[in-house]
Structures are given as structure tokens and as C-alpha cells.
Amino acid sequence: MSSRPLTPTTHRIEVEKPKDFTFRPTQFTFLQLRTDEGMDARPMSLATSPTRPHLEYAVRLSGSAYKRAFADLRPGDEVRVFGPIGDFVLHETRPAVLVAGGVGITPFKGMAEYAADKGLPIPIRLAYSNRTEDEIVYRQELDALEARNDRFRVMYTLTRATDNAWRGRTGRIDRDFLKETARGLEDPIYYVTGTPGMVVGTLRLLRSAGVPEAEIEYEAFRGYG
Q1: Cα–Cα distance measured from residue 10 to residue 71, given in angstroms and rounded to the nearest whole number
Q2: How would DSSP label each residue in the chain?
Q3: pLDDT digits (tens, 9 = 90+) for 66-123
Q4: pLDDT digit string (tens) for 109-133?
Q5: Residue 116 phi/psi, 5° resolution?
Q6: pLDDT class of 194 with cuts at 50, 70, 90
Q7: Cα 120 versus chain centre, distance
Q8: pTM attached to this predicted model
Q9: Cα-based distances in Å from 180 to 1, 126, 127
Q10: Pairing of β 80-85 and β 28-35
Q11: Cis bond leading into 84, ω under 30°?
């Protein structure tokens, strides 16, 4: 078990992978913790590739008993993992456009790790929106994966950039941004994660751009306090 902050409002843990546990890049599990209010299990996307020796999870912090327990985990603490579950997984032979908001990045980090570790021949583009630069979750890891895999490209945008230090894109993910992200890709699959509002808005943009429903995969993070 290891535990550390990712940004001022997000936290991640790594836990030992159970023996014979396998999953696809990247499904989710239920993660059970002991909280002040008793045992509690919540659905959590796996934030790491099945090629890695551990399991990783990340959350946006809050005052809930579950989130407090998550942030307070220390080496030697026990958690229980149930799964894997879900069909939100990377297609290994099709170009991919990943669209994420905030902590919704977690499954995409695992997909990007998997593509790099496996040497997948597919191009992968990531359009990633956050409020401010210090809230970009897994930025160091994503940049390292981009440097390692010349088929993987990250495109950031900030919705609340407050100073002139940020030289990248600003504003919400819009139709032009999605068009730029997918430029040059032949028959890509679009994967969308984030809050329900962000996911619904992105789905509308993709549909208005003529992307067929069959070419869109999505997963909404509703949160739980």
C-alpha cells in the first residue's frame, strides 16, 4: 500500500494486486474500505494498466467518511477489491480519441500505460480538461507516457486559467477542439469520461459532428460526496 496527494484536491493509492487478478484496460472494481461509519464499498475505475504489478485508484477529495478513509490509508492497511467490472475498455486495433475531465482521467491513464507497455500500433489522442494547472491529475505521468510513446499525444485545456504562466489552450472542450484532437485519424473510437454534465455535453458535440453512436464509448463519474 502506498498513498499520496496528486493535486490539492485529489489523492491516489496503490494497493497490492490480488493473486490471479486480471482485468482489461481498464475496467473498474468496487473498493471496500473501513471508514468511521463502518465498512463501505464504492465503484472505482482502475487507474493503472493490467501490465503493472499493482492496482491504482484516485479520487477527488471531500468530507465524506469514505473519501476521508481513502486519503488516510497507510502502508499495512487492508482494503478489499471486488471485480473487475465493465466494458469501458481500449480497443487494441482502432485509433482512439480519449476525452476526459478532471479525475475522470483515471481509466485513460491505465489505457495509455497499456498501449505503451504493449507497444500497440494504434494512435491515441487525449483531450483533457481541468479547471486550473495545479489540478491537472497525473500530468507528470501522462507527459512521461507521451515522451515514451510517439503514438500517444496529450492536449490539455484549462477552464479557469488565472494567470499568464499557462501557454496552452483555455476554455471548455468544444467541437473545434475535438476536431483538432482527431485530425488525421482514420475511423477512431471516441471514449469519454468525467462528470455526467461533461459527458452529456461531449456526447452532444460528437453527435452534432456526425460521429456514429457505435463509435462512442462513455463512462460518467457521478461522485459520492
Answers
A1: 9
A2: -EEEEEETTEEEEEEEPPTT----TT-EEEEEEEETTEEEEEEEE--S-TTSSEEEEEEE--SSHHHHHHHH--TT---EEEEEE-S----TTS-EEEEEEGGGGHHHHHHHHHHHHHT--S-EEEEEEESSGGG-TTHHHHHHHHHH-TTEEEEEEESS--STT--SEES---HHHHHHHHTT-SSPEEEEEE-HHHHHHHHHHHHHTT--GGGEEEEE-----
A3: 999 999 999 999 999 999 999 999 999 999 999 999 999 999 999 999 999 999 999 9
A4: 999 999 999 999 999 999 999 999 9
A5: -70, -45
A6: confident
A7: 19
A8: 0.94
A9: 40, 11, 10
A10: antiparallel
A11: yes
Per cent of the chain over pLDDT 90 is 88
Q: Please name the amino acid found at residue 206.
A: L
